[in-house]
């Protein structure tokens, strides 16, 4: 059994992908056995901006309160976290810059509230370090901040390198592999030097690992336009130097959407998804028949919806008093039923007209997506987020923050297969 600690758990997307639900798999619509060897032994969910911890309440309702922490991860005593083999979590994209402590030139301090350093603290302080990490973030992590493209990701890679981990990453758009939502995220796997997978990377070449032999490549195959497009570079040993100087003043990140880092050596290339199977569409996840009246678009609001979804161009003035032209193109209104959905955002819920909310055409009229349909777009079980006291707008918010469970499941299966290689 592979013991898992889940950070920033939300309503449990990582757990559903790794354990399944009632031992059933998300990719089968929870109809077929998953036969998972993962077991979550500790979880943490804390929402700093609200007193009511709704996501944690959903998590506890689904899996119980034992070994679940609902407190700020930055204040959790690392010694209270049980030993685990795999640390997982979707951490936010923030400013990862660091400085040295005044007392100790080797000590590092990151900005307060930046959750990457909570992960780092666990890895650094755990006597029995987790052998594996499985993390998720928005894809702009690879190219932020604007003045030092890729610096933030370089800080993460070098801090993991110093802790003894090799890392592979890939930006995956779930819909490009037949899953129901066009949601693009970067997935990061790390392997400690004491693990067999670390040695498997050493025995492979970095290019072969990225294209064929790697955990992510086996779960989500890719191709490249030209193998000569691989980029190779070495990270600076001084993480503070990386923070201050990495890629300063350049317009493009050094990191492509696919890559691997081992012993500070980075290999990266732009890859293209290799998939020609079935596509899951909005029609596939729609509820049939009439839904609650609140989800239908009021005729009096149609002009507002049409305006917000349409193209527009107008002048704006920035904070410095500079006037500039702001333009945006038109969006499909309603959303096409024969394609995967657009990315769900946290503001998906509520009746007010919006450019970004989904609207579909049904026999009964134009309507927004229901909480169950939003759950299906992220491949959660129906009504996973339904709980007394939690409004539909909050359930939509959960799905805007969640991940596509099928991506986690597929990578998890590939990871477990590699763990099991003798």
Automatic annotation (TrEMBL):
Q: Which UniProt keywords apply?
A: Methyltransferase, Restriction system, S-adenosyl-L-methionine, Transferase
> Where are its TM segments located?
none
Any one GO MF term held by the record is: DNA (cytosine-5-)-methyltransferase activity
**Does the record bear Zinc in its keywords?**
no
InterPro entries in alphabetical order = C5-MTase, C5_DNA_meth_AS, C5_MeTfrase, SAM-dependent_MTases_sf
The EC number on file is 2.1.1.37
Please name the GO terms of the biological process aspect recorded for this protein, alphabetically: DNA restriction-modification system; methylation
Q: Which domain of life is it from?
A: Bacteria
Q: What is annotated as the active site?
A: 93
- Catalysed reactions, as listed in the record: a 2'-deoxycytidine in DNA + S-adenosyl-L-methionine = a 5-methyl-2'-deoxycytidine in DNA + S-adenosyl-L-homocysteine + H(+)
Family, as annotated: Belongs to the class I-like SAM-binding methyltransferase superfamily. C5-methyltransferase family.
The record's section on NCBIfam families has:
dcm
Q: Any idea what this protein is called?
A: Cytosine-specific methyltransferase
User: From which organism does this entry originate?
Assistant: Flavobacterium degerlachei
Record lineage: Bacteria, Pseudomonadati, Bacteroidota, Flavobacteriia, Flavobacteriales
